[in-house]
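tool_log.txt
---
The assistant was asked to compare two proteins side by side. It first ran the structure predictor on the initial sequence, then on the second. Raw inputs and outputs are pasted verbatim so the downstream comparison step can read them without reformatting.
(1)
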Amino acid sequence: MLNPFKQPELIRAERFMSMPKKFRDRRCTAWSDSNRQGAEVECFLEGPAFDRDGNLWFVDIPFGRVFRITARGEWELAVQYDGWPNGLKIHKDGRIFIAD
């Protein structure tokens, strides 16, 4: 059968950065009990969004954390709370909305 679509271009992905060791805490959580069959986790990152200053914001579901990576590549823990933040969006006025 003739395929009318162009063959997809293969792109080699490279790791830009990874979570600093000071934020890694490999253990079981209530989230990993129900989502990873009780396996230990050190993070599960979701909801990436850039703000107008070029900072990258995202959440870490099992540990209830919200992170920011500055435009210079520095990791910051913005907030940690008792919850499972599952997504994040930044409104045009700068407010950050978190789905939990």
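(2)
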Amino acid sequence: MRSQDLKRAKRDVRKAVLARRDAMPQAERDSASDAIARRFLALRELDGARIAMLFWSFGSEVSTVPLLEGLRAMGIRTALPRIVDGALEVRAYETGDPVTATPFGAMEPAGGEILRPEDVDVIVTPAVAFDRRGARVGYGGGYYDAFFPRTRGGARRIGVAFALQVVQGELPAGHADVRVDAIVTERETIECRDGGA
């Protein structure tokens, strides 16, 4: 697929899925976010994990607040990404630490210890849409696709999304797009290493 065609296909997916996600009633979104957190916090991938990097949810995304609180309660150190010179930097973060707004609406740590990408054990990964093979369409910045290769091989990339964000069939993907290992929704946990079956 040509670059322009790929961008157009991703833009179409992004528009359609965001419209569905934005249309979810807030009560349904809150209930589904809590269910996703419970399912996520029971994952065996968290056994022995020392550091988990989350993202600051905004808009109609799955709320990451219960994930952050649950991981801290399990004794897992939490971190958030900060965009520095066009790349993700891992910053230690605890609830209440100072944050600053990004141009696209999320918040990022204002300070916090800088952690090495290779020390992160679990990367809670955002996206607008996923397919069952672990392909994802994000917001178009490419930050996570560039970040994943900087992490160690055993780090688990786990997407969190509402069930309506998991599309049937295959998402448009280019050679630089990196898949996640699993996706947690309010209904199921999808293991993607074997094609999401």
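---
observation on (2): The chain has four helices and 13 strands. Residues 3-22 form the longest helix (20 residues).
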